[in-house]
Design goal:
This protein has about 425 residues and is an alpha+beta fold. It has 15 helices and 14 strands. The chain has a six-stranded mixed barrel. It has a two-stranded antiparallel ribbon with strand order 2-12. A two-stranded antiparallel ribbon has the order 5-6.
């Protein structure tokens, strides 16, 4: 009898039920899209920010101490180096898979046509092989990705697999001053050593690097005479935004309790990754590039706040829509519901009947809205981050809870009207 009455309601008021389902579907679709993107946006934003350079710098331990004590840049006082062979240790840390790119960076002063210039040596699309404890690690890495924002105005990006070690790229401003074009050969002198470098490309970085010459690490090491040594290593890693635990650990990890230490060490905070790098390379000091690391957290917080507001507003609109539709539906069925009360149905039984009808409609609308919202999330992921958004079980659970809450809250005015419904007044035309 109960379910026959439910079927009868759907048959008679299918347009009203369809409108409720559509309202729920719209609210559920927006909530689904925002929640799936929100739960996946941390890694997306981190990956996007990685295109703007490294967020960790590794320098010799002694240089880090001097920099802190005397508040000077390590380049001004550098006398110590890191052995080039140590760079492979980066791939042995706990969060090695979060390290997307890294490259050693050596800079030295050189002369070009009687003008003092900065010569920088590094890796460009370098294939690294490193063996430790019987395991061979391999990684293609270098400035090709770490300097992805460079605009190559002439020629091409230096490629170690394609070009010789005596090749170079010249900043656009220096190239203009020295009348250098792609394909030219320039003579560079450093510490009494001279090399002829073939210019394979002219780049524009938008900063001081526009006055630099970039060449391979081997070439710079030979010119400067530093051997197989590195001044610093730039590291780009996907990290989790800092929270209270990360801030506390950044001051002094030894102050953490055992549980706090384990949680911090096993979370991809920039401070924990730096700590693990220093464990792997004891003679080095790893520190975060705070501008980028802080930006990740701020951008993520603002993005999540915006998505939360959109979700709340969409669900608020769905609640109002459900309230109006359910209330008007109860008003249209007032005689039917009053008759049920007149023949002995209690307020609870009549309320259960109406809520069952609304919840079935909401479930149908929510199911349609979830898949529509997930498709919308893919559109956001591809258009903003150029990658797919993963389906989150947590998002599905949250959407179910929210839709149930929205349906119940939206039904409150109709239920209150239903509770006050008096059969004698309605059936005798007094309503």
């Amino acid at each position: 009898m109960f379910f026959r009455m439910v079927r009868g309601t759907f048959a008679r008021q299918w347009k009203k039920m369809l409108m409720i389902a559509v309202t729920v579907a719209l609210g559920a679709s927006i909530a689904t899209a925002m929640l799936n993107v929100m739960l996946d946006v941390g890694d997306k934003i981190n990956e996007e920010l990685k295109t703007y350079g490294s967020n960790i710098t590794v320098i010799p331990q002694s240089e880090a101490v001097i920099s802190k004590l005397y508040d000077v840049e390590n380049n001004d006082v550098q006398t110590e180096y890191i052995e080039e062979e140590k760079i492979g240790e980066l791939m042995t840390i706990f969060w090695a898979n979060n390290i997307t790119d890294f490259a050693p960076v050596n800079d030295t002063l050189a002369e070009l046509n009687g003008t003092e210039v900065t010569l920088v040596g590094s890796w460009f699309d370098h294939h690294l092989e490193f063996k430790k404890k019987g395991t061979v690690y391999q990684r293609d890495t270098g400035l090709t990705n770490l300097r992805s924002w460079w605009d190559i105005t002439e020629g091409e990006m230096l490629d170690e697999q394609k070009h010789s070690e005596n090749c170079a790229m010249v900043g656009v401003q220096l190239a203009a001053e020295q009348n250098i074009r792609s394909g030219d050969t320039v003579t560079v002198e450093c510490s009494g050593r001279t090399k002829q470098l073939e210019v394979v490309g002219i780049f524009e970085s938008g900063d001081d690097e526009d006055n630099y010459i970039y060449t391979t690490l081997d070439c710079e090491q030979e010119l400067s005479g530093c051997g197989d040594m590195m001044k610093k290593v730039e590291v780009s890693a996907i990290t989790s935004p800092d929270d209270e635990l990360a801030v506390k650990a950044a001051r002094n990890p030894s102050l953490l309790s055992g549980d706090e230490y384990d949680l911090w060490y096993c979370t991809a905070y920039v401070s924990s990754i730096c700590f693990q790098i220093q464990e792997a390379i004891p003679e080095a000091s790893a520190s975060a590039v705070r501008q980028i690391a802080d930006s990740e957290g701020k951008i993520l917080e603002k993005t999540q706040l915006l998505m939360t507001l959109i979700t709340v507003l969409s669900l608020f609109g769905a609640t109002l829509g459900i309230s109006n539709l359910v209330t008007s539906g109860v008003m249209e069925r007032s005689q039917e519901l009053a008759l049920l009360k007149a023949v002995g149905a209690t307020n609870g039984e009549v309320t259960l009947l109406v809520l069952t009808e609304i919840m079935i409609t909401s479930v149908i609308g929510a199911a349609a809205g979830y898949f529509l919202g997930f498709a919308f999330a893919q559109v956001i992921g591809q258009s903003v981050f150029s990658s797919a958004v993963e389906m989150s079980g947590m998002a599905a659970f949250i959407v179910i809870v929210l839709i149930i809450a929205v349906t119940l809250v939206g039904s409150i005015p109709a239920i209150r009207m239903l509770m006050r419904l008096r059969p004698s007044e309605v059936l005798h035309g007094g309503h």
